[in-house]
Amino acid sequence: MLAGSILTLIGSLFLLLGALGILRMPDVYNRMQAGTKATTLGSILFLTGIGIGYCGCVWKVTILILFILFTNPLSSHALARAAHHMKIALTNRTVIDRLREDEATEEDKC
Question: Exposed (0-12), middle (13-18) or buried (19+): which is 46, by Cβ within 10 Å?
Fold first, then answer.
């Protein structure tokens, strides 16, 4: 029971840090990364803590964790590519834009 409470607390802290990252990051791409990585780990830890604390819902929590593991990175990737396709600007501190380089290489091939 104590381990479940500790994992739930750590997961909540990661969720809080993800929210702070969304507020602090300079552009949409960095915000998306901070939000996705922190909320994925935070949600998994939070749900694991709940699964340990309440033994009756272990299968439901496992399904939720798997769903989060598969959908969070995929949706974040799709949103970032859509934002890049819409030409939403990167921050001035961004040094490398690999997607723009790849798109330029593909255009040269055609």
Answer: buried
Q: Integer distance in angstroms from the first to the last C-alpha of the chain? A: 61
What whole-number distance in Å separates Cα of residue 29 and Cα of residue 34? 9
Could you report the per-residue pLDDT of 54-77, keeping only the tens digit for each?
Answer: 888 889 999 999 999 999 999 999
Cα–Cα distance, 67 to 22 (Å, whole number): 22
- Characterise 47 by phi-psi region: left (phi > 0), alpha (psi -120 to 50), beta (else): alpha
CA 110 – CA 100 distance, rounded (Å): 16
- Residue spans of the domains in the chain: they are 2-109
CA distance 89 to 69: 28
pLDDT tens per residue across span 16-52: 999 999 999 888 888 888 889 999 999 999 999 999 9
How many Å apart are CA 37 and CA 69, to the nearest integer?
A: 10
**Predicted TM-score of the model (pTM):** 0.81
